[in-house]
Sequence to fold (194 residues):
Amino acid sequence: MKKQTKGAIAAAAAGALLLGGAGSLAYWNDSTTIGGNTVTAGELQIGDCVVAAGTSGWASTNPTTIAIPAANLAAYRIVPTEVLEYNCTTSINAIGDRLNAVIAADPASITAGTTAATGATAGQLLDSSDVVTTVTVDGSVVDDDSPLTAANNGDAVAVTVVITFDNVDDLVAQGASINLTNLALEITQTEINP
Fold:
């Protein structure tokens, strides 16, 4: 009886292996081609941002506009409610039949300095600033509702980055700094063009 049981178990295991492995049990099948052609991915790239000749691109714009030469930027001292503005022109590669995209400054590319005046902390200036980007093509604003498309491939794109320093009081942010050396513009695909 034990030999028969062992034999039955071995036969069942062998059958299971035959059914589940090595393709020894086949079913009829067939295939056909559906046609088509090569499909190629598009492109989404941003070029260097170029400032007007003889300028750094930076200015203080509140309450009046004062250009800040590149050599003076590191020595410039801002105050609460002041607005710094950066203007440049870039170009894009936008290739894709249903491509939509926007451009914005990356706030994460702005970092806090490590020192501050007595009574303030190093990160307070960064914490007390807001970054807004405005993008236009031929005077038309580019945003989520009117994004860049393949029709803008190669177009000149005007970019304005505005950094506003909040109305702080007491000793908040005094002597603190932010590093704009790696301020980055990002072009990002948005919802696919319907």
About this structure: The radius of gyration is 31 Å. The chain has three helices and eleven strands.
